[in-house]
Amino acid sequence: MELIKIQSFSFLFTILILSSSSLPHRHRHNRRHHRRNSQLIPTIFHPPFIPSNVNGEWVLLHESIGVSAMHMQLLYNNKVIIFDRTDFGASNLSLPQGKCRFDDEVLDVDCSAHSVLYDILSNTYRPLMVQTDVWCSSGALNSDGTLIQTGGYHTGDRKIRLFSPCDGDCDWTELPQNLTVQRWYASDHILPDGRVIIVGGRKAFSYEFFPKTMDENGGGFQLPFLVETTDPIEENNLYPFLYILPNGNLYIFSNQRSIELDYVNHNVLREFPMIPGEKRSYPATGSSVMLPLRLRQGQEPVVEVMICGGAWGGAYVKALEGEFWRGSSSCGRMRITDPDPKWVMEEMPLGRVMPDMLLLPTGNVLILNGAANGAAGWENAIDPVLNPVLYRPDEPDPRRRFTVLTPTKIARMYHSSAILLPDGRILVGGSNPHATYNFTGVKYPTELSLEAFSPPYLATQYAHLRPLNQAIDVGQVISYDQQFSITFTLPFPQPDAEFMVSMIPPSFTTHSFGMNQRLLFLEIVRVERFFMFGYRVIVFAPPTRNVAPPGYYMVFVVHQGVPSHSVWVKIQ
């Protein structure tokens, strides 16, 4: 990663050396002025702080938002679209007066909301109206920040819906045109040319595009790989993991196998080794991220995929019979840009099925939600895993990469979700392992609550390291390979400041996968200190659309393992 130090010889005070445990990661001040036998070092005075939980903190935002958060999408106006499904009856939130859905599969008249728009800044929400069933659907933001939301169930399985960010009373729009086939449990990804590719789904062994291409036939483009990765009865190939590669091709993982697809010429270019151990795709659900891309001028970034959790083949069938097999505790990492890629396996401290994996602004990975035993599906899992786990991919000692964090009190089982927020917190909601909303007489009631998890870097004792008042000199819009600067302040002068700049698009999260999730560490040209508390970091924007598909991104400045509040930019 791009780590830049600023050395200052202007020291204000001298205090006792701070314990290394007060730093959130291995990034430390450069103590080149420290004398071996001295008990004192010149540094900056920090006032007393209020102790905070360095293993993360949970805050309940709402006991109920009226719907269960099966799907989440962050928008660039700091609002979050949350939605569930429509075919189970009324939710616990009413639509505005006069709005109703008619001739629903369950209700003749349904005047309840199955979607909400959550405002992060005010911690409020308002009901939204979806027209058709969005159950187990998929989505991606286009280059203008509009959510392209695809598929679902029954009346919604071929539908295309739009939601554009606004500050007024905007709502869902459903297009008259349809997908080529039903897309239930499919995955979406924005492409370098701004289109969205939709891959797979139940009995949908193909892919298609929105907007459609001129050569697209009635059933999309066939992908035999999805047939080959389908297990009898269980499937274990739904919600495939997708990543756009720096060469413009698409990485697709399903079940235990993965390929590189040239979706322009419709050719599979290569197949990668099979991941050892358990199945990883729905309903033997694991999760995945593409680890951070570290950008350098004139160099192709190394691409490494990480997959954690899942279940053994047969776990889904056994769960239907009331026998719950232990979820996977393994993670695999594979550098797909290596000449001979191989999976390198590691063991998590807590095994789980249905985990969520999120990239943090620091480049670390947060693993949360899910169950210790069973598989995805209704009533198919037991023993919620309440503790998030932090994974540090750059830690050289594998034994120290995983850290177990503070547990939540709320079980987040099947149909839960989590996303990264612009302030560095994690928004967590959902969990409904039942065919309908069920709040009594069950072990794991339907969850309508919404909570936020603050990772360790947001602990109060690190507040003195947090960059503040971040601004970008060129405004909100940047161009590829452009140099631009980010100005910010630190609460106290730092003699040996160390910075990184990370750039993250908002992901669409459902069923344990954050679609379109990626993290770019930008190349830093130089760092300038222009007054006691002020800094300017000059960076290169991502070089191509393949590295960073067009659209909105959160830009974070990370100082010694502590990120700023992000600033939104649009790259085009």
Give a short overview.
Residues 1-22 form the signal peptide. By secondary structure, the chain is mostly beta strands.
Query: Strand tally, please?
Result: 48
Could you give a short account of the major beta sheet? 8 strands, mixed
Fraction of residues in helices? under 10%
Strand content: 35-45%
| Average pLDDT number | 91
CATH architectural grouping of the domain at 70-315 and 329-354 and 395-410: 7 Propeller
Keywords: Signal
Organism: Solanum lycopersicum
Pfam families: Glyoxal_oxid_N, GO-like_E_set
Signal peptide: 1-22
Word description of this protein:
This protein is an all-beta fold. Among the domains are: 70-315 and 329-354 and 395-410, Galactose oxidase/kelch, beta-propeller (Methylamine Dehydrogenase, Chain H); 462-571, Immunoglobulins (Immunoglobulin-like), CATH 2.60.40.10. The protein is 2% helix and 38% strand. It is built from 2 helices and 48 strands. The strands form 12 sheets. Strands 1, 24, 38, 40, 43, 46, 47 and 48 form an 8-stranded mixed β-sheet that branches. The protein has a 6-stranded antiparallel β-sheet with strand order 10-9-6-5-41-42, with no helix packed on it. Strands 4-36-35-34 form a 4-stranded antiparallel β-sheet, with no helix packed on it. The longest helix has 6 residues, at 315-320. The chain starts with a strand and ends with a strand. Residues 5-51 have low confidence and may be disordered. Pfam families: Glyoxal_oxid_N (PF07250), GO-like_E_set (PF09118). This is Galactose oxidase-like Early set domain-containing protein. It comes from Solanum lycopersicum.
